[in-house]
Amino acid sequence: MFLLLALLWIALHIPQFTAQYSFDWDSANYARGVAEFNIAKHQPHPPAYPLWVLSARTLAPFTGGAMRAQIVLALLMTLAALAIFYALARQTGGNDAAVAATILLAFSPAVSLYGAEPGTLIVDLLSSCVAGYLVFLDAEVRRWRIVVCLAALGILAGFRESGVVLLVPMIAAASVVHWRKARREVMAGLVVALAVFLAWYVPVAQATGGWRELQRLSAEQLRASAQVTSVFYGATVDRHLKMMAENIIYIGMNLAAWLVAFGLRGRLRSRWRYAVWLIPNLVMLFGIHGARAGYWLLSFPPLLLILASGSAPRLRRIVAGVLVSLAISYFPYGRLLSSDRWTPYYLAYRSTPRLALDLEATQRRLDKTLHDLQASGEREPYVCARNLHEAPNIRTLTYDFPYVRWAAQDDAPAFASIWLFDQRGPDAETRQRYTTWERITGDDLISIWRSTP
After folding, report:
1. Most Cβ neighbours (<10 Å): which of 211, 326, 394, 411?
2. Claim: this prediction has a pTM higher than 0.90
């Protein structure tokens, strides 16, 4: 059964390796950084992700471009995370529980999406697994692994710094726990981790104009994100509550299958370890910024270990959990987006691998449509009025379809022009800008319109 599930998991990821286009705003930023690393131009955006971009640049000649290089990189991160999680779960709950928990982690909607998507969020899962392994390992038997884990976290910070920052309290706690039995290894690990960190951080800071400038850009990036979600950064109470509700949807979609498999019968030991593992990210998600399901990946390992602890997994319940995950992951959410109350459906849709597959198909059709419009002599620029984080948006369009001259909605021309909207088309305010609107084509995610003054 394990082999069949492994083959199924591989088969489900194969279509994502054919992707040519950006998945979201961030993936376009990383891809631009592969060609020209410039943080000030958001290539990529702060805090820079230098090792992710460097790795993608190394892989790009062998994979057919920056997007596929990132997908390969994400898959490698996923496989490493699953292997370390299995070792961690086996140490805390035994082999049977470890196998079951690893299967459920692999098939969870968020891992299925971000594990083969051109973006860095999957690094958080790997960082969390490494930190978890560090805090639970037996220092009397595996002292040298303390050095390896700390060094790995220093490296992973160069792939995605924010996740490791939220794990710092846990890393500090692990260092204190192991200090009495493995003082030399802890000291050596911290020194190596610092050296590795500085090896990538110093060149990035120098390229940015100094560490103060890099910190300023990073702080501005956090502030720009948090000010639309958190009351502590100026957002309204309603918007903050909305963020909290969205986070409940994101974790609920993944938690459902785990509850089917394990229930709520877990028996915890070393509760403080789980607390220091979970609390920093929960504060971030519910208090500051938690706009995507991928931000929960940092908390997946402890949550799964909590549910799996003390349980005796049964095959039929594990299979049922996998089926629940598959149903959530590949449900045709796009058909529900024509509803006036489409937002909850899109929140679920954007958190599953189904969106990645549908977005790729949409953008391939868009490529053909754009060539047809150019061949018919439609005047440029074409206007992007789709303002979602996921592609297509103005950032991804200018990267993926550079043969078209694009304009943002505020810079729309006064003459007859081509517009790209979401599936609903122009709203009432936009319709008033032109005399007539003609829908050319569209699907569940986008629509193309022609406006006439």
Report:
1. 394
2. yes
